[in-house]
Structure formats: structure tokens, C-alpha cells
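Box 3.1 A note on notation
Throughout this textbook, protein chains are presented in two layers. The first layer is the amino acid sequence; the second is a C-alpha cell string describing backbone geometry. Keep the layers aligned when reading.
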Amino acid sequence: EDRADMSTACMHNIRSREVVLVEVRLNGGALKDATDDHKADREIVMAAVSQYGYALQYAVEHLRADREIVLAAVSQNGFALFHAAEHLKADREIVLAAVSQIGWALKYAAHELMADREIVMVAVSHQDGCALFHAAGYLKADREVVLAAVSHDGSALQYAAEELRMDREIVITAISQDGRVLEFAAEELRADREIVMIAVSQDGCALFHAAVHLRADREIVMTAVSQNGNSLGFVVEHLKADREIARVAVSQDGMALRYVATDVKTDREIVIVAVSQNGCTLRNASEELKADREVVMAAVSQDGEALQFSANEYKEDREIVRASVSQNGDALQYAAEHLKADKDVIMAALFAPNITKEKTCLCSVEITTFIPKELYGDEEITFRLIDLYGDDLPLIFLYCFVRKYSNLLALE
């Protein structure tokens, strides 16, 4: 009998092992929930890390020191190098495999390999230019290495040696990839018109890092605001009053209206362009234009919530309120009280694009909260609520609807 029990247990263990082996081949992370015996099973661990390299963390210590297993792990996920035994972090072939998979794995390599030119070159050349951060100091001053790094990620310029931040070719390569890294270029290059033009063409907000005299250059400013209207915030004051520049900026991003000169905020044509691009920039318009019906209508048609920034008279204007809630049901909160109880306005809100079966809230409050009691039982409202809520509709609405129509039938 004891022999039979041992045989059964043995068969169970064999089947259990085969099950785990199948599981980790499909999902290496399943090694996490395996038994200690399975985490010490070389075949199981090899199968797991081949599917998901980072599963190396779940293996027992001596298998994290197994060269073949670690090589398989880092080839699948370079970051698995973090969990390798220390002596394998100094293994050139393993580290090369890791950084070939993901450059940032250089972070976990032994210090002597962070100074290996071939390894660093591979690391920065795989869309991970910023792996340059982990390279030895002398390689941050290696022109070829830095050029490779900024070609893949312009922001790697920040990790380059100071003398290479003055290198025109390297800086142009970097800002062509990411204009904002103009910040890390040498001061003399941030005053170079050609370089600044390239940077703001890629990202208008790179203008912030340009020399002051170039932030007063009309052509450069026009290029910058065409790419990102909000770069208007970085230009010299007299150009914020330039109506042509202002128009281009607010056409690109209506919120750039906040940066234009005060007198430009009274320009009806420019403000209409701005609110047509972003309705809520109505907040940045002059008080006079917040009371202009055409301006307000353009704003709420683009974003219903712009109603909150209009003059109070328009919160009582049925047509404007209806246009607002039709665009965004949440605008109902800004309407005058008598319009919150207006059936036509409520129906417009109920059919707004942002009111769906998945989102039945207005301003984080259930839409049913906004329906006045006198409209409980209304046929159109009830049917729309049933469409939105289904079986979750509060019973009070169904009760009022049934009661209302039962009374009508009784009268007939």
C-alpha cells in the first residue's frame, strides 16, 4: 500500500511538472507562482525566461548564475540583466546581448563594461540614445558615440560632454529629432539663427531656450507659433501685439489667446478664430467680447463648457444654452435655474455626445439628479433614460411614467 501511495505521488509530481512546463512556455511570468522545486528546475526556468526574460527574478539563486539561462533571459528582455548574478553582469557577451535588446540595460552592466566603446555604441544605437547617461565619462566625449545617441534620441544631448554641446553638427542632429533639446546646446548655438529656426520648426516651444534677440525675430516667432501656438508666451512683448502673429498662434491653439497683448484680446475677428479652435479660451477674451453673442455662440459650439465664461445674460439665453448642452451635456450646470428645468434643454443634454450608456454622469453627478420632479414620467425623457440606464434606471422614473399613463387611461 505504501509503495502504491509513493507511486501515485510520483506520478502526480511528474504531471505537475509537465503542467508547469506548459504554463511557463505560454507565459514565463507564471514561474512566479510555481513551487520552489520548480523554480530550481533548470528546464522549467529556461522555458520561462525564453518566453519572458524578466522571469529570471523568480528563479533560484544558482540558476540566476547560470550563464546559458541568463543569456536566454537578457536576449528576450535586456532588463533581466538586473537579476543576473554579479559576475555575469561583467560578462561581455551577456551585456552585449542585453543592450542589443534594450539600450537602457547598460544601467545594470558592470562599471568596466560601461566603458566598453562597442557595448555603449550598441546601447545608444537602438532607439535608446539616452543610455548615454550610463556610459563612462570619456565616451560622453566621444563624437561618434554622441552623434549616434542624439540621432536616435535628441534628448541624449544633455548627457554629452560640454565640448560636444558646442558641436554644430551634433546639436543640429539633436534638435532635428527633438527641438526642445536646444536647452542643452551651448549658449553661442542658442544664439545661432539657423539652429534656432531648425529647433522651433520641430517644436515651437523650443523658442523658450533661444537667445533673447531671436525671440524678437519676427520670422522665427512666426515659425514657432505656427508649430505650437503657445510658444507665443515666450516672445518679446511687442510681438504679442502683432495681429498677424496672434492670428496664426490662436489658429494653431486657441488657448494661445492668453498670451496676446491686452488690446488684441478685444479684436473680435481674432477672438472668434481662437474660440472656434478651443471654445474655453473664451475665458481669455475681453469682457466686451464675452458679452458678444456671435463670439459666445462660436465658443459653445466648439465646447459647451465655454458657457461658464460667457456674460451672465447668455446663461439665460435658451438658444445658447441649448447649443452648449447639445455639444457637452456637462454645460447644463452653468445654465440659469429656469433653463435647467426646461424639457427641451434637458433633452438636448441627454442626447449630447458625452452622455452614453457607459457615462451617465453630468459633472460627476448622475444625470437623473438634474431632472426636475415635474418632468418625472415624461414619455420622451423616460424612454431616453431607459435607453441610457436599462435595468439600472431608478424605479421612481418608471413608477411616475406608469402612474401618469395609468391615470390617462382611466380618464379615457
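Confidence is low (pLDDT under 50) at residues 8-12. The two ends are 86 Å apart (CA to CA).
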